[in-house]
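Technical annex B. To support the medicinal chemistry partners, we prepared a structural model of the target in complex with beta-D-mannopyranose, based solely on the information shown next.
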Amino acid sequence: MRVPSSPAILPFWVPAAPAPGMCLHLLLLLALCWVGPIGGTRTYSLQGRWKIRSGNGSLELPGTTPGCVHSALVRQGLIQDPYYRFNDLNYRWISLDNWTYSKKFKIPFDICKWQKVKLIFEGVDTVAEILLNKVTIGKTDNMFNRYSFDITSVVRNVNYIELRFQSAVLYAAQQSKAHTRYQVPPNCPPLEQKGECHVNFIRKEQCSFSWDWGPSFPTQGIWKDVRIEAYNICHLTYFTFSPVYDNSAQEWNLEIESSFDVVSSKPVGGRVTVAIPKLQTQKTYSIELQPEKRIVKLLVKINKVYFRTVELVEEPIEGSPGLSFYFKINGFPIFLKGSNWIPADSFQDRVTSDLLRLLLQSVVDANMNTLRVWGGGIYEQDEFYEICDELGIMIWQDFMFACALYPTDKSFLNSVRAEAAYQIRRLKSHPSIIIWSGNNENEAALMKNWFDICPSDLQTYINDYVILYVKNIREIVLAGDKTRPFITSSPTNGVESITEGWLSANPYDTHFGDIHFYDYVSDCWNWEVFPKARFVSEYGYQSWPSFSTLEKVSSKEDWSYTSKFSLHRQHHPNGTDEMLHQAGLHFKLPQSTDPLRTFKDTIYLTQVMQAQCVKTETEFYLRSRSEIVDGEGHTWGALYWQLNDIWQAPSWASLEYGGKWKMLHYFAQHFFAPLLPVGFENHDVFCVYGVSDLRSDHRVTLTVRVHTWSSLELLCSHVTGYFVIKAGEAILLYNEPVTELLRRCRSCTRQSCVVSFYLSTDNGLLSPTNYHFLSSLKEAVGLQKAQITATISQQNDTFAFDLETSAVAPFVWLDVGSIPGRFSDNGFLMTEKTRTILFYPWKPTSKKELEHSFHVTSLTDIY
Ligand code: BMA
């Protein structure tokens, strides 16, 4: 008898924000008992030390598995940190070489006693020929696939294994060249990205050939587990499950799928016991398996508990052409608020459990409930999804295709088919995943003709698109998982795209599906520039990471906004100018005569600009959920681009490489709060909406305050009567012409005053305090240089920063450099003389260390 892996299942699973519901972890155990001779499995891990050799043998070094060549070279001191300065270019040779991994090993049990022996790779990156004892046993060409090779006839007690890799860059070029019938664009990334070409011809992390926020490091190596499995009679190769609701019996069943390799030449009889101890559920089934590969499906009735359900609702909306696009989780409409996830590092072996937990905890701490695992990266590690299950983070899971067209020749399709089937099987038991999506922006790329395709050739590419995402991936998804929706692309028009033949003339139609929206030119403080769409799954603005993050990978001569280094790290064409343009619309640009000071001030200002822009845009989407204006609205999702960074560079991220929170992340904590007042102007009328993601209706009052820039004394305050905000709703609570508001508050002008406001419920709940600027801050009158001091004290595991200011201070930014941790709030508008902010360290630190590293900046410091 043996007990295979025992994944946790999470019935009645509720997304984290706003109020975590009951999340019950159940342990599912599958126990097998064969009738007849004793079977069994022995496993031997091949993780650990391997030998790595360069193509011509000039370099030989030890390497660790899981890992890659770059990491091995770093560990041996043969190269520096690949992220340091221009090392991405200096180390390009590594990915252009063809490396070999090898290992001699002795199996610690008598291999002859086993009928079947398999070599299993959970992940090979990417193109390799595999030899065991000098015999080729197979080839790999897809880093997203799991490979299992039968080595029964080749394996001995002492063995020599080799993986002869081919450079991913050279392989991609070769594949593209061999595709002679027509080109499959894009050929190469924009020059600014300093990347490699033809990434669409290899099933490898697409951004590893560079992206507009990331470097080119096309790694080679064994990036996941590798082991030998030996067994007799019969072997369970995997088991997975999904909850299925039986409508007629009105009860839940657990559909368990298990796959067996029956080695015995005769049928094998046995018993399978499914046990869920927490539910006191245990059932035993008798099975008989014929020789060869067998799949067994069992249906187990589940009492008492409910499972997470998901529904993507696309239905007509009154007063609006088109269809809705929103998610119902457990029967309740949920506004998806969050951001987009990219790989946490170019070298996956550096992504530790601690780092994953830290990044995902930051998602929850910022009141997000959803992440989109973007299609240009990787299907994440098991642990990523396990943590999301646990923390209640919903996942929009893309398939790994992005911003490109793809070939559909037989071998490519076979590889993708195996990848899709495997990933569905691996991931479908995670309740955190709520939707599968075929690709990132490839419907848009075709229909908006990003790659200048001749109209007469378009049909060829459309056919390829339908073959890949509809006839293959979609079919595999639907066959493997009936519990979640599938859409072919993001953005897409959903069922409207299907009606138009799977590709819509305008995938950015605000009346259907999701959209991506980027506009770096228009004034982001003006909400009228944003689309009133059903669901916005990408939007954002760039900023620079903090100086303490950049300092680690740069040297003195790099520390200016226009240095060679700064330009090198900016992969988005025109990105540098766009940030300054947007910041310049509302702020004075830093002018210090000290270049280092100007650099630091500019970093600060780009973060202010980004935070303010994404805030305005997100708040617009949040308040557009309950209304239709000119046929548009009913917005039920806002996922900004992007959550995290892959290295230290300017990007759209709100978390820096390593996890430090940018100002935007602190802002997200506010604008994604479950109860939020949103202020804005509509033709000189100041309006406030109340937005609620609370689970029940609430009686609220709104407090509106007016402050003058020139004094810490409050000018005036007004509290409204009671309003009821229904669960999940956004309603107008307040509107007053700005002139009247100013007149009421003595000598106020747009330039001299600022408005703040918050909601309070009658059971004591408070929203964050929000604010509205009545003019650009470069025109503000009365702002004084604020002297802000902090007294730091330790309170158990946290530290209190007691702040005192001499004047009203916008965008107060507390920084403790490289000390890992986050503040309870940051980047805030300080309108009161004192305020206490907490610092939550992620590693042990001391008051002394914090005092030493502490620095505070507010807007007037950079003027
Ligand atoms: C979208 C994303 C990414 C990109 C981002 C910013 O296109 O899907 O490809 O990084 O915009 O340009």
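Notes passed to the chemistry partners:
The two ends are 74 Å apart (CA to CA).
Residues 211-213, 376, 403, 440-441, 516, 538, 641, 652 surround beta-D-mannopyranose (CB under 6 Å).
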